[in-house]
Give the backbone structure.
Amino acid sequence: MLTTNSHFIKSIPCIVLLLLIGCKNPEKTGLSKQALIEKKVDSTLALMTLEEKASQMLNIGLPTLLTGDYWGAREHVDFDAEKFKKYVMDHNVGAIHNTPGYLLNTKEWHDVIKTIQDSALQKSRLKIPILYGIDNIHGANYVKGSVMFPHEIALAATWNPSYSESCGAISSYESRAASLPWSYNPNADIAASPLWGRIAESFGEDPYLVSEMTTAYIRGSQGKGLSDKTSTAVCVKHFLGYGAGRNGKDRANAIIPENDLREYFLPPFEKAVEEGAMSIMISSNAVNGIPCHINKYYITDLLKGELGFNGVVVSDFSDVEFLVEAHQSAKNKREATKMAVNAGLDMLMNPYDDDVVNIIVGLVENKEIPISRIDDAVSRILRLKFQLDLFETPYTSPTDYPDFGSKKHIDQNYKAASEAITLLKNENSVLPLKKDRKILVTGYASNSINVLNGAWSRSFLGRETKYNDATKPTILDAIKKEVGASNVDYVAGTDYLNDINSDLAVKKAKNADYIVICVGEIPATEKPSDINELDLPKAQQNLVKKLAQLNKPIILVMVQGRPRIIRDIEPLAQGIIMAYLPGQEGGRALSDVLFGKINPSGKLPYTYPKFSGNYLPYYHKKTDIRDVNWGYDGFYPQFEFGFGLSYTTFEYSNLQISTDSLVGSDTLNISVDIKNTGNRPGKEIVELFIKDLVATRSPDSKKLIRFDKIPLEPNTSKTIEFNITSKDLESIGIDNHWVVEDGRFEIQIGGHPQKLLKRTFNYNAE
Ligand code: BGC
């Protein structure tokens, strides 16, 4: 039980605090807004007992405050009076997270948050509002009626950061409509292994693309300023190296040397901090055997020190506990808490219990954690609460958000899905499909809104059908709407892993002119998303093989987060479309691509492997691709990073560079002409890579340094220019610092990995 020290502490300071909190108008105080916040943080901290400080560091799961089991099914929120009093009023905990286990609308969320905040603000001693955090992974996905965007991997495939920005902005708006101010997104992980089940939640394998998309998302979420009632504070995750588990599994140990860490994994977080990210979540895994949660070098030296991060560092779900159970790095929770807090962790997502409060108090009293560390953690937490203006606006009114789930938001979602969809094959221009033909639609993903949405959609795994919005079309629904139900036959063919009625699909296909086979992955994240082989499940591949025997045009539509291996069935399809996890408007967008209303313009944000024993990111070293003949041809992905076709064609010409000899900090101007040589308007992604021809630390094959996406009408051209400096030539050298060595570099530019235009130039520091 929380104790308070004296009558003085109980009464007077509250008045001081209220006076300061009441200082809404910075002009009147003569202090800048930030200086005023710092003053409020300091004066609040000065009033707090050690127990109160430790309580601020606790982030408890909502179900712990409710009647019934944590994971039990419920249909309404019943607070357990005793637990509610303990956590909200007595402890006045720092944060609460998670859903009650069912889907709430904005009004229901508002009521829950209001109940919590009114009690925290009126009945706790220091009257500190509680920070509510939620996994807004691709929209405010736990709020009934919200828009659910394409997952991050699909946003990355647009190569158009404005969609990541609008996903951030709309998710924030719709989250605040439900009084939820803190968002556990975006994910800035580098997806280093194609086996990893959370690739869909990432922006892919390239540090530059991931950085651009992450910062755009942050701008969308926080750009108007945190006190704006449509902003949410982001929580960028997962620091650091989560997507690089050595065995490709979730939360697995990653082996990341310091040079790779700095070259690939750190930059997106560095950019996120520069963009003003307010919180960062630590990765559940270990890197080089050291659990990230106790890695003082990562949290304190790198993140808070080198990157200058002054926001809140929060643990992942139960991860202090996992230091004991999973990592076996600490003998008990006390030791684990000590290691994590001393490493720099500010807030513990400790869903089930308040045990860590007493543990922290004991550790400080015993001088095992310095009070300065606790004060630092609590200041960061209070700062975020003041910046979010939670003392003044602890919850919002749903009626102030007329755009929640609006057509405006839905249109933006549809556009994002449309620009993400990536055309990977179009033999004999089989696509777009002609509308006056008979179509068989088949496959696991063809008639499921859940598969389009993936995990984190209304429920954690996104597999519940009861929360689906009946107005949202599946791919099948959208195709029927486009060409008329009488022209469409549907047979499921398979489920995720098993044949259901593939023979019937073959029978029906006999009457069809086109066979559209929608394959896909079961919605999953975290541990449930682990797989043992990357191949598309056999039953789904067999469906394609069986149908291919009819010699009719096959269009393979892939609805999947990961690049599942399709080597054997790729030659059997004339058209191949990657839909990723395109979200709620995905059915409509896919049908519009199939029938040519949308000209596809996405490109792969990862390397699509052909063999499970041959996967590498595009930025590998030359020695990685040495083949059995001692040549250098050992990298043959199914589809390359940055690859994607269009219904029109683009031609690049006239690559010019302003100098063949770049010196010091001068600028090199690059220009290239792009022409739409087909007969449809289209959008082209222009990719600019740099290749260091010789470097002491073996150089990467190439490195993305800029991109742009441009619309072009048929028969028109545009000149695109990029300016680069020596900064863009840098890589991590043998002493683990960014360096550029004098020598020759190559510019590679274009929209097709096999057809990049190239020019070399010389660089000299002076
Ligand atoms: C996930 C995080 C998520 C957190 C809170 C964890 O298990 O790894 O990505 O934000 O749960 O739900």
In short: The mean pLDDT is 95. The radius of gyration is 27 Å. The longest strand covers residues 682-692. Residues 312 and 381 are 6 Å apart (CA to CA).
